[in-house]
Amino acid sequence: MEALRQDDPRRFGRFTALARFDEQASAVRYVARDTASGETALVTAARPELAAVPVFSRRFRAEARTAERLAGGWVSPPLETGKAAGTPGDGPEPLWTAAGYVPALALDEAVGIAGPLPERAARVLGAGIAETLSRVHATGAALQGLAPGTVLLAADGPRLTAFGPLGAAASAEAGPEDRLSVRLGYLTPEQIAGEEVSAASDLFVLGLLLAYAATGATPFTEGPAEGASRRIAEDEPELDGVPQELRELIANCLAKDPAERPSAGTVAAELALEGAAGLARGGWLPEPLATAVADQEARVRALEVPAAGGAETPGTDGVPSTDGTPGTDGAPGTDGAPGAETAGPGGIGEDRGTTRFLNTGPRPPRNDTPTTQLALPQGAAAPPPPALAPTAQQAPAAPGTPAAHSAPAAPGGAPQPGHPYAAPAAPYAAPGSVPPAGPPHGGPTPYPAAALPTGAGGTGAGGGGPMVSLPLPPAPAPAPDPGASRRTLLTIAAAAVGGLVVGGGAMAALGSGETAAATDDKPAPKPRRTLPGQAPEPRWTYTHPASEAPPLTAAVWQDELLVLTGESQAAAVDLRTGKRRWQRADAAKGQAALAAGTDLVFVSSPTEFLWLAPKDGKVVHRVRHTEAFDDLAVGPLAGSSGPVIWFTASHTVTVKAPKPKKGKKKGKDKQVPEAFFLAYDIVRRKELWRTPVPAGRAPGTPSYRVAAERSADILVRQRSASLTPAEVRAAKGKGSVRSFDQKTGKLLWTKQYGAATPEAATAGDEDGTLYAAVGTDLEAFEADTAKPLWRVEGTEGSVYGTPLIAGPLVHTTESSQSVGAVERESGRLVWRRSTEVPAPGNAPAITLSSSEKTLIAADAVQVTAFAADSGERLWKFQDIGAAEPKGATVSAPYRVLTVGKTAIVQRERSFYAFPVA
To answer: Where is the composition biased (Pro residues) (predicted)?
Structure first.
């Protein structure tokens, strides 16, 4: 950190600049004060020579917009984006974006200060990154931009602060003819092979980051620098120094084949089932890092707003130069002079994440090797990368200053060359090539990281942040160039290996608004292989708009639509594509959605029944409860079978006081609830029968659930919450099951089963057997006689949830987070498996695939799939959701619907369509 220079802007919108924070490849960052709120912010201002390049300007603004969409959880939102005011001189006004200040250390800085992270800290770090990746990948995008300088360690957990790929660029230069050259670093095997990036590419980079965090070295640093790209593409990673508990997971992330890498949700779950925020509670940083974070915050908070007019006076910005003299332009402490931008505990150095202080040792020498652009023959592949000279070593630290940025030794004791971000020498690219604005060949759209806009690379040493091709926002295109369709978009160059710059960089030459046509000769992708325990790749994902309340219910219509009902409207998602087809406010607050024959969608709302056209959601029929059911208040649906639905309803009637005896005063009339159980045909839109039943707890409508449907009757349980106090006392701790005639609705009988309580989970089958939770066991009864048939012992301290009957098996679920299967006839235990969710809670909800081959358990933590016949654990899935750094993670439970060979997994707003057997 240093004093403001003469040519630095003093104001950025409502933000007043206090000091220079650091310099990056594409921007300068300033500590600033929000004049409206008084809060401290960090402003990232594009370098003037780059801001003048239209292609850079468009990309910068596009990444600012992306930052807003990605904000949440471990990513902080931008506060404002605009142009600076009060810039001296005739140069262009810089683009800028501001974000709130969060005290934190960059990962490479933290390793330099305290060495490798303890295992728990590494788990928190990796889980936080994976949680963010899971959110991004759920949109079908790839994050890109991960680097040790864009991953920060705050007191309450990790942060991602890269301002997209531009922020993570190792170098960026404005060239002739409105071109921009950006050196990209941190390659993956698929990039070296010339293939496009994907979500799996983010997982490879995450594996590298985790290995570096756990050991202080990277897995591919053994050997000469010029062979780094080959080692990444061909060699197995060196993980001997990684703790045993993390080694297998990191190795999976570093698989050469992207299809063999785990999903972000799987990594997050394996690192911290309770979430990064939960694991970080109570403090997660080693003492030296916690102290450095606190010291950094104190220094930044001590900065004062400059006097009116922006005059520079010694000490007014609270930032002394390294030699004790004021940091004025051209004097010691300014750029180009000794100590201009420092590194080590106590100061702020260049090329770091958003909020971190480094040593006051001298700055590493600049790497001023010019970026080279080489023209390639039309349609030709890039030539093999040349061997490049190693990067210069870091300058020695001042006497008595801790060498925070001397790289730790590689496995085997070999010292690492230079700074952990030693910049590679000149890579090259095809001039005039422009990465496409959208996903090439139908691949995922790269999703830049966002939050406190920053980057790992600087204009000097310290270069390589992870970065791949930079897709540009749409821009007016000139007349098409027939030769442009075959131009190479991205070429790879080997790089010197220093710390985390593991084998190279890449150069993208960005033109001025030029677009490149996708080639049609891309080889067919290899079929994705699934690792044991890894969820399959979703067929599609859908995220409900943040502008709408989360869906209340979800249902499948005719294997064609996923119908969602919410507080404000109903919506339909195409089951083939995951795209929203329509939304309608008419069906707001729907309680259920069913198929009304083959051509209509039935929705039950609190006040009416609606029939919607599946094509556009328009209301075709409407039946108001007050008109069709004599002013009855309709309760939730109890169940359905084909076109028939069953539900309860009630109203209040006046019971007149009896005529008093002679000489006595007449009593008061009473308002008494009257309840009914009804059957209704949603195809014919006709009530089938109505049977009086005991009223429930106020306001009087009982809540029923159909436990079994048989040929002649239905077996119904009343939910305990709707029982009146008198009914609870009369039951003496036992629950009841009622039998109603299917045709007439006549109540046939009411029975109790063993010691099953009103809350006990109960289900029956068509053969007349009822399965109920009794204490910690599951017991089978003959439904008509209540005779016990068999009993399966459960887990001590656990209770059974609602079982699921399929073929010869009864699938079971327990609050001990176990699921299983028993034989229907004998009660013999076939298998029992844990979902491996450690925390106790409600029994997982279980669902069978349409083929009944896969049993899927869903709870508040994850979704786990098992082979229904053997109990083999197939995979598990977690969508961590947005984590509140100082609070709990998203607590909405998972829900699962199955249709055909697809399982639709929902967690609040997010939906995933997984293939299942």
So the answer is: 433-447
Omega before residue 427 within 30° of 0, cis: no
Q: Is the CB of residue 404 less than 8 Å from the CB of residue 419?
A: no
CA distance 609 to 572: 17
Q: What is the pLDDT of residue 72?
A: 66
CA distance 345 to 295: 9
| Predicted confidence (pLDDT) per residue in 217-268, tens digit | 888 866 665 677 788 888 889 898 999 999 999 999 999 999 999 988 889 8
pLDDT tens digit sequence for 158-212: 988 756 666 666 677 776 666 777 665 567 888 888 788 889 999 999 999 999 9
- The upper half-sphere exposure of residue 694, i.e. CA atoms within 13 Å in the direction of its Cβ, equals 14
| CA dist 841 → 515, 763, 858, 876, 893 (Å) | 54, 21, 12, 18, 11
Cα–Cα distance, 47 to 20 (Å, whole number): 13
Q: Torsion angle, CA of 23/24/26/31, rounded to 10 degrees?
A: -50
DSSP string across 473-522? PP----S--GGGGG----EEE----BTTB-S-EEEEEE-SS---PPPS-P
**Strand 854-858 vs strand 713-718: parallel, antiparallel, or unpaired?**
unpaired
Domains of the chain are 104-171+178-285+406-472+489-510 (1.10.510.10)
Question: What are the C-alpha distances in Å from 799 to residues 373, 765, 777, 814, 844?
Answer: 68, 21, 7, 6, 11
Distance of alpha carbon 587 from alpha carbon 552, whole angstroms: 12
Enumerate residues 6+ apart whose C-beta is below 8 A from 525.
none
Residue 56's closest CA among 470, 409, 575?
Answer: 470
Cα(791)–Cα(778) distance, rounded to whole angstroms? 6
pTM: 0.50
Antiparallel, parallel or unpaired: β 157-160 and 171-175: unpaired
Question: How far is Cα 214 from Cα 119, in angstroms, rounded to an integer?
Answer: 7
DSSP string for 142-178: B-----TTTEEEETTEEEE-B-HHHHT-SEEEEETTT
Q: Are 561 and 586 spatial neighbours (Cβ–Cβ below 8 Å)? A: no
Proportion of the chain in helix, strand, coil states, percent, rounded to 5: 15, 30, 55
| pLDDT the model gives residue 144 | 76
Sign of CA pseudo-dihedral 59, 64, 69, 73: positive
Residues 6+ apart with CB under 8 A from 494: 225, 226, 227, 228, 229, 385, 386, 387, 388, 424, 503, 504
What is the DSSP secondary structure assignment for residue 125, as one 8-state letter? Answer: H
Residues 126, 110: Cα–Cα separation, whole Å: 15
| Residue 579 in this model has a pLDDT that exceeds 70 | yes
Chain position carrying tokens 């659930």: 705
Q: What is the DSSP letter of 2?
A: B
Q: Radius of gyration (Cα) for the chain, nearest Å? A: 33
- Which tokens belong to 577? 């594509």
Helices (H) and strands (E) in the chain, counts: 14, 46
Q: Is the pLDDT of residue 481 over 50?
A: no
The helix or strand, by DSSP H or E, that contains position 22, with its residue range, turns out to be strand 15-23
Both structure tokens of 222: 């053994």
User: For residue 192, what are its two tokens?
Assistant: 């070296």
Q: Burial, 707: exposed, middle or buried (Cβ in 10 Å; 0-12, 13-18, 19+)?
A: buried
* Token pair belonging to 876: 């598990």
Q: How far apart are CA 892 and CA 302, in angstroms?
A: 41
Query: How many angstroms separate the CA atoms of 503 and 235, rounded?
Result: 12
Strand residues in 793-892 grouped as ranges (E): 804-806, 809-814, 818-823, 829-834, 845-848, 854-858, 863-867, 873-877
